[in-house]
Amino acid sequence: MDIGVLLPTGTAQWGPRDDPRELIAFGRQAERSGFSSLFVNDSLISPRIEALTMLAVLAPATETVTLGTAALLPFLRRPVQTAQALASVDLLSGGRLAVAVGAGFPGRFGKPLYDLSEVPWERRFARLDETVALWRAVWSGAHSFRGEILRVDGIPPATRPYRPGGPPVWLGGATPAAQDRTGRLYDGWLPYPPDPADYASGLQNVRAAAVGAGRRAEDVTPALFVSVRITEDVDSGRHDLEAYARAVYGMPLAELEGIQAVVTGSADQVRDHLTRFAGAGARHFVVRLGALDLTSQRDQLERLADLLPTLKASAAAHVQEDTRPVA
User: Fold this and answer.
1) Which pLDDT belongs to residue 67?
2) Which neighbouring-strand residues pair with 225?
3) Nearest CA to 66 among 45, 90, 82?
4) Are 191 and 174 in contact (CB under 8 A)?
5) What whole-number distance in Å separates Cα of residue 77 and Cα of residue 90?
6) Residue 164, Cα to own-chain centre: how many angstroms?
7) What's the chain's average pLDDT?
8) CA 189 to chain centre
9) 237 and 229 in contact (C-beta within 8 Å)?
10) SS3 sequence of the chain
11) How far, CA to CA in Å, does 175 sit from each of 189, 192, 202, 211?
């Protein structure tokens, strides 16, 4: 079981006196506290520290944690250039990079980014899959790539990643089509369904698709993106997350928690809720801390760190019991 934390790289999660350079110390604190990964998210139209820039800074500042994106939006960047940047981060970190990717939120959250990037909204999922395939070709030393959408000739010698074939690439998405594509093409699955039962059924679909494509079910890392606020009681936590949801997403908490996994309450309540997702098959938690300044973020980090031993022990019990056959 791996438990990681999402760094608050967006300015909506900083207080008026916060210094973004504190994020480096935040990452080091998380590593010392026993978290196994540090993730950053990506955007174009919300102010934040750019994702790959943050990971490049963290690479020499940390030693053991996985460094990941949750999720990188490849359509914002030129694919060959991005392959070079990701290979560089993988090299600088000694092979600790994990790249979760997505095609962006539907509607008002996603389409404006495509418009600004001058990339067609149509066939965005096929474009995403081909972009990842192109990265892997570049990382393997290919001189050309011929897809249905992306076609590149004369690829010059490129930076090779630390690991042969490049870092693992995960897919963020929970639709049936995304589950199928994850099983066939990706190294990990990073959805955020609110209900553990939906996670369990989705994971079964991912594993079945992997086996159907001639892969092993365990070739796909089952991860979960979840927002957490540890507090004295549920009502207090919901009050704080209401402000968080409106500041970060511009929507009420009730709408956000209908889309994403959101957990709040006492330490025991949070542990029990996350353990339900472990029982559903999640093996790598990427936890976003529901706080709106870096002091509160550090407080939540410490509270979650106190839960790590018992949470990992509970999850380990589920790992031992997980003998479900793949259809």
Assistant:
1) 98
2) 286
3) 90
4) yes
5) 18
6) 22
7) 94
8) 9
9) yes
10) CEEEEECCCEHHHCCCCCCCCHHHHHHHHHHHCCCCEEEECCCCCCCECCHHHHHHHHHHHCCCCEEEEEEECHHHCCHHHHHHHHHHHHHHCCCCEEEEECCCCCHHHCHHHHHHHCCCCCCHHHHHHHHHHHHHHHHCCCCCEECCCCEECCCCCCCCCCCCCCCCEEECCCCHHHHHHHHHHCCEECCCCCCHHHHHHHHHHHHHHHHHCCCCHHHCEEEEEEEEEECCCHHHHHHHHHHHHHHHHCCCHHHHCCCCEEEEECHHHHHHHHHHHHHCCCCEEEEEECCCCHHHHHHHHHHHHHHHHHHHHHHHHHHHHCCCCCC
11) 12, 11, 8, 19
pLDDT confidence tier of residue 327, bands split at 50, 70 and 90 = very low
Give the type of residue at 14: W
Rounded-to-integer distance, Cα 209 and Cα 201, Å: 13
CA-CA distance, 152 to 309, in Å (whole number)? Answer: 48
Q: Is 242 exposed, middle or buried (0-12, 13-18, 19+ CB in 10 A)?
A: middle
Which pair of tokens denotes residue 53?
A: 């820039």
Per-residue pLDDT tens for 220-277? 999 999 999 999 989 999 999 999 999 998 899 999 999 999 999 999 999 999 999 9
Cross-strand bridge partners of residue 261: 226
Task: Look at residue 149 and tell me whether its pLDDT is greater than 70.
Answer: yes
Would the pLDDT of 93 be above 60?
Answer: yes
Q: Evaluate whether 42 touches 72 at the Cβ level (below 8 Å).
A: yes
Whether 142 and 152 have beta carbons less than 8 Å apart is answered as: no
Query: How close are the terminal C-alpha atoms of the chain, in Å?
Result: 24
Q: Output the CA–CA distances (angstroms, integers) from residue 42 to 10, 99, 194, 269, 309, in the order listed.
A: 9, 12, 21, 30, 30
